[in-house]
Design goal:
Length: 254
């Protein structure tokens, strides 16, 4: 398994486990099977009334379906990736997803660019599909669509991989608060910020010295960005910010 470390804007390195050739091929096979079955069912449904349709609309629809198969494939990938956090049914089954090269969630435009170049990756053979050659040859296992769109295929980390930090605590019930956080602060925190803070609190593969440096760097960045002022202990900043972000996220989804 190839692991990639990318630095976030807060100076916190995120570890991304890149998806390998096998999982990508299996995910593609699942998606191909779903598309093929849906396409055949739709084609049969349109062909049945052709001989009994004096208007010719059914025949026209069949022609559109046959001629638009590439658009159907592109639309399938754009829609599923955009609506389900970078995953198609095949990727969800294999536990992988599309992410931006900086480790953040990919944008809709990145999904579109990636899907538009898929026909080239699949159709151009030299002597195997260009996409497979690119995945095998590039350090980040990217096909042409990934390179142009600035995306990666990464493994989805299990929610059970690390215990939830401060599981029994909540920000509103803290006896002592060190940060001037207000309800308006939540508007300046994205879901990615909560994941960065959680990553900081749960990672175990780094030394105590490296952990302290990461905490100080992240605490300084967030304090400046959120105008929280100075602090004495970076651990208090990260802990309180995470509890606040988790509680704020719970309020927005309630």
């Amino acid at each position: 398994m190839t692991t990639l470390l990318v630095a976030t804007s807060e100076g916190v390195p995120l570890r991304l486990d890149l998806a390998g050739m096998g999982s990508r091929l299996l995910a593609g096979l699942v998606d191909f099977s779903i598309l093929a079955i849906a396409y055949l069912l739709l084609l049969i449904a349109l062909l049945l009334p052709v001989n009994f349709d004096p208007t010719g609309i059914s025949g026209f629809a069949v022609g559109l379906l046959i001629g638009g198969i590439v658009l159907l494939v592109i639309g399938y990938h754009v829609v599923f990736h955009a609506l389900f956090g970078g995953q198609t049914p095949g990727k969800r089954a294999l536990g992988i997803k599309v992410a931006s090269s900086d480790g953040q969630p990919a944008t809709v435009m990145q999904y579109v660019l990636r899907a538009l170049l898929m026909p080239i990756d699949l159709v151009l053979w030299i002597p195997v599909p260009l996409g497979l050659v690119a995945i095998a040859a590039t350090a980040k296992h990217q096909r042409l669509g990934d390179i142009v769109a600035g995306t990666l295929l990464v493994r989805v980390r299990s929610a059970k991989a690390a215990r939830e930090p401060y599981e029994e605590e909540s920000w509103s019930k803290l006896q002592q608060k060190h940060l001037p956080l207000t309800p308006g602060t939540a508007a300046h925190l994205a879901p990615e910020d909560r994941e960065v803070l959680r990553e900081l609190l749960t990672r175990t593969e780094i030394t105590d010295g490296a952990r302290r440096r990461l905490f100080v760097s992240a605490a300084r960045t967030y304090s400046a960005r959120l105008q929280l002022g100075g602090f004495e202990d970076a651990r208090d900043v990260i802990r309180e910010l995470y509890l606040y972000a988790r509680e704020a996220a719970g309020r927005t989804t309630a």
